[in-house]
Design a protein that fits this description.
The chain is globular. The two termini are 29 Å apart. Helices cover 32% and strands 16% of the residues. It has a four-stranded mixed beta sheet with strand order 3-2-1-4, covered by helices on one side. The chain has helices at residues 2-25, 39-49, 76-85, 94-102, and strands at 113-122, 125-132, 138-143, 152-153. It has one domain: paralog of FGE (formylglycine-generating enzyme) (Alpha-Beta Complex). The chain has four helices and four strands.
Length: 167
């Protein structure tokens, strides 16, 4: 009696294993945002959440004439917070960023390195990989998540690298 139940369960299990293998064999669609996050977009985030603006802004406002330039002087943590606020998005991995860049589909508004979600382990700690700058598919830059400067920006992605089943 127990054997009959087991025999009926095996074909169903085989189907789900085959389905999982097919899912893993099909490349996932990556939907990087078309451009780096701009000062204008980041201002909406700052106003909606009370998050601190970048230090080059004056009285909570980006400099005149820079609305459509990439926001810079943001930490990795700032970038993650923005992406989550902007529709539960996330930072891309190095592999995702490189795939879009090498396919010639990466548009850059500025000459900035972009934060990714990829950790890089070194003898001195865990760093985050950055990709860029303009016209280059290079992800060799390493920064601590708390660091920021005038040539570090970011873009978000909406896809999920994780396998999710919906029943």
């Amino acid at each position: 009696m127990g054997t009959d139940r087991l025999n009926r369960a095996i074909p169903a299990r085989g189907f789900f294993v085959a389905l999982l293998m097919l899912y893993l064999a099909v490349p996932q669609t990556i939907s990087l945002d078309p451009y780096e996050v701009t000062n204008r977009q980041y201002l909406k985030f700052v106003r909606a959440t009370g998050h601190s603006p970048p230090e080059y802004w004056t009285r909570g406002q980006y400099p005149e004439g820079t609305a459509d330039q990439p926001v810079v002087l943001v930490t990795w943590h700032d970038a993650v917070a923005y992406c989550q606020w902007a529709g539960k998005k996330r930072l891309p991995t190095v592999e995702e960023w490189m795939g879009v860049c090498q396919a010639g589909k990466l548009v850059k508004r500025g000459d900035v390195w972009e934060w990714t979600s990829t950790d890089v382990q070194t003898d001195s700690g865990t760093y985050k990989a950055l990709c860029g700058p303009k016209d280059e598919c290079d992800c060799s830059h390493r920064y601590l998540p708390e660091w920021k400067n005038e040539v570090k920006g970011f873009r978000c992605t909406a896809s999920s690298p994780y396998l999710t089943f919906v029943w």
